[in-house]
Write a structure and sequence with these properties.
- A hairpin with a 2-residue loop joins strand 3 (256-262) and strand 4.
- The chain has a six-stranded mixed beta sheet with strand order 2-1-6-5-4-3.
- It has two domains: 6-173, no CATH class; 181-301, Nuclear Transport Factor 2, Chain: A.
- The chain has helices spanning 6-31, 34-48, 59-82, 109-114, 118-125, 129-140, 145-152, 156-173, 181-197, 200-206, 231-246, 298-301; strands at residues 207-216, 228-229, 256-262, 265-272, 275-285, 288-295.
- The longest helix has 26 residues, at 6-31.
- The protein is globular.
- By secondary structure, the protein is an alpha+beta fold.
- The protein is built from twelve helices and six strands.
- The protein is 52% helix and 15% strand.
- Residues 15-81 form the RNA polymerase sigma-70 region domain.
Length: 311
């Protein structure tokens, strides 16, 4: 291959930067890890920089193909790491801007946020790697079946079957009454106030009787080693945790709680000395909280940037 000229490198970079948000978004939805997604996209750039642009008809499709294949390779490494993971595993939270579609109109903002919500990522992580990739490419990025088949090295019929299984699985495990961002934020804010105030009655009205709380400390922070099921048990756990936290000394170790944005939705962050210690995210069906996720693993919070709640 002839050595790339500065102008060729500049054109490679221009195209890559234009599509990078979508590439990171695709990799993150497949991998549920910001750090792994960034690594995959960096490797995609190295491969892209060596491609003859004259041979590429659709840069976006080509880049998504490279990125998806690299992400699937990384999934195998992730699966080995999770075999020795301590306690429940949750996706690494995302604090960056959302990306999908790749066109000028990425779709409804609420739908886009749902595609990267913690609840959705937990569901996606329960799919097989191929089902996950097909779902992300088809449902989030609207890639034609023929291109998905080429990306995965499968027949178009096989890809359609994977898409059907993935869609059915996701529909069965996602809220039947999804809420918009404003409602999600209002419920999250009310939930935080109820926990801090120790208002058991308010929490009972907000939590589904069979709600599930999952905590992820990764063996590095104290966390429940199994999901906690049932509103009563969850309330006792949360009020106990907050009470202990607020009883800490006031020498800078006492946590503060605030709303922030995580995975496109309002979330609760506990800060200790200005550093995220715990991130809480809610899964909401109608006006009822059905799922709670507490991320405490410091390795998963290292890249998280605390900001304002969604506008």
């Amino acid at each position: 291959m002839p050595e790339a000229t500065p102008s060729a490198i500049s054109r490679h970079a221009e195209l890559f930067v234009a599509h990078r948000p979508a590439l990171v978004g695709a990799a993150y939805r497949v991998l549920s890890s910001v750090s792994d997604a960034e690594d995959v996209v960096q490797e995609a750039w190295l491969r892209w920089s060596q491609v003859e642009l004259a041979e590429v008809r659709e840069p976006r499709a080509y880049l998504l193909r490279i990125t998806t294949r690299l992400a699937l390779n990384r999934v195998r490494e992730q699966q080995r790491r999770r075999e020795t993971y301590v306690g429940p595993w949750l996706p690494e939270p995302w604090s960056g801007p959302l990306a999908a579609g790749g066109g000028s109109d990425p779709g409804d903002a609420a739908e886009l946020a749902d595609s990267v919500s913690m609840a959705m990522l937990v569901v996606l992580s329960s799919l097989s790697p191929l089902e996950r990739a097909v779902f992300v490419l088809r449902e989030v990025f609207d890639v034609p079946f023929s291109e998905v088949a080429e990306t995965l090295g499968r027949s178009e019929e096989a890809v359609r079957q994977l898409a059907h299984r993935a869609r059915s699985h996701v529909q069965a495990r996602t809220p039947q009454r999804p809420v918009d961002g404003r409602t999600h934020q209002a419920v999250t804010e009310k939930f935080l106030a109820a926990v801090q105030g120790g208002s058991i009655q308010s929490l009972l009205t907000m939590l589904a009787p069979d709600a599930v709380l999952t905590t992820d400390g990764g063996g590095l922070r104290q966390a429940a080693l199994r999901p906690i099921v049932g509103a009563d048990k969850i309330i006792r756990f949360l009020i106990g945790v907050v009470s202990k936290a607020e009883a800490l000394s006031t020498s800078g170790t006492k946590p503060s709680f605030q709303l922030t944005t995580a995975n496109g939705q309002a979330a609760i962050v506990a800060l200790v000395d200005g550093v995220p210690d715990t991130l809480g995210l809610l899964g909401i069906d109608g006006s009822v909280v059905t799922e709670l996720f507490l991320v405490r693993n410091p390795e998963k919070l290292a890249r998280f940037v605390v900001g304002d709640p969604p506008p």
